[in-house]
Structure to design on (124 residues):
């Protein structure tokens, strides 16, 4: 049995918030936040990101053969990167001027960093 270290998770999420990225969130499958780091007074919507990920899993996986790892969405108010980390959903929210390549790199780096401890935890 593994224990999740909340301060280490928070620090990892905080480190992603730069270069146009203003929020990083870890959600459960229903869209409820497990941990989050938000700059300024921004208010990202977790449940919408979780819903988008679920829709892409159900339709996208059947189209792509089950290899969907990350979805980058360009919205009116910025960009969102959404993907799975173990049984959780990771979201990074960025402003319009954030480079898509940088957002993708930050997402992949953060996912790879938090995957080992999250993989050993079972959600109740």
């Amino acid at each position: 049995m593994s224990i999740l270290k909340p301060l280490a998770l928070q620090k990892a999420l905080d480190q992603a918030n730069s270069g146009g990225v203003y929020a990083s969130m870890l959600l459960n499958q229903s869209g409820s936040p497990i941990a989050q780091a938000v700059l300024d007074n921004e208010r990202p919507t977790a449940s919408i990101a979780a819903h988008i990920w679920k829709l892409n899993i159900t339709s996208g996986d059947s189209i792509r053969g089950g290899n969907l790892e990350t979805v980058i969405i360009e919205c009116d108010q910025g960009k969102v990167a959404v993907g799975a980390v173990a049984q959780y959903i990771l979201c990074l929210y960025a402003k319009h001027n954030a480079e898509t390549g940088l957002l993708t790199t930050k997402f992949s780096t953060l996912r790879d960093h938090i995957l080992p401890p999250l993989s050993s935890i079972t959600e109740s």
Summary: The CA atoms of residues 6 and 87 lie 17 Å apart. The chain has a mean pLDDT of 81. Strands lie at 21-27, 33-38, 70-75, 78-85, 88-94.
